[in-house]
Amino acid sequence: MLSGSAFAQYQGPRRQKNLDAALAAGKGFSPALSFQSLYGGRFKIGWGVRYTGYFGKSTELVTAPAALTSGKTDPSVLFSENILSNFDTLTLNKVQSNALNAVINLQFSLSNRFEVGFNIDAIGLSFGAQQMGRFHSASESAALDNTVQTAKPTTFNLLLISDNDRGNLNSELYARYWVSDRMAVRAGLSFNFVEYTTDQKLTFDNDRFRYKSLLPMVAVSFTPFAK
Question: Structurally, how many domains does the chain consist of?
Fold first, then answer.
């Protein structure tokens, strides 16, 4: 009865626009600035635009393309066994990537003040300075093993599912509480794909290397309209 009463009292806006500043930190840190526009009642779906940065010290990136990591490129296959013999590594002295992406948003309102949601980058562009790193091949006989390589953030970002994804993508799972009609605090987890492309093709004719980062995240949200 109490649950039914709480759901009946929800009278939130049919359209919700938010400006958001988030920071995720752990091994490395990732600031994000975004705009979201959501539509619906208790359950909302919407779009947005987000800048995500990722900054870290010495970082080990591994072979990125799904054709090498699992041998499967079918987007319907979410989980498949890794082919460890195909996993080369690129250890960069420093990581600094910047991504500007369109975002897909899903959100559910538990009350007028409390919301839970999920968002994920869909498509966009990345930029960042060129970095130096050491390449290690899974094949000890590879001529390029233990060589110094240069790389920069992969330019084009695209959501395709799992290791089929390309570039630098961010997703968030969060809970948000509106402390006033215009300001909210948000907390959750940020999952980043950080991807670099080397200047030349390396073992297995591959030039893309990825670091996956799951970090705790806090944020502040603002809306120009009263809730």
Answer: 1
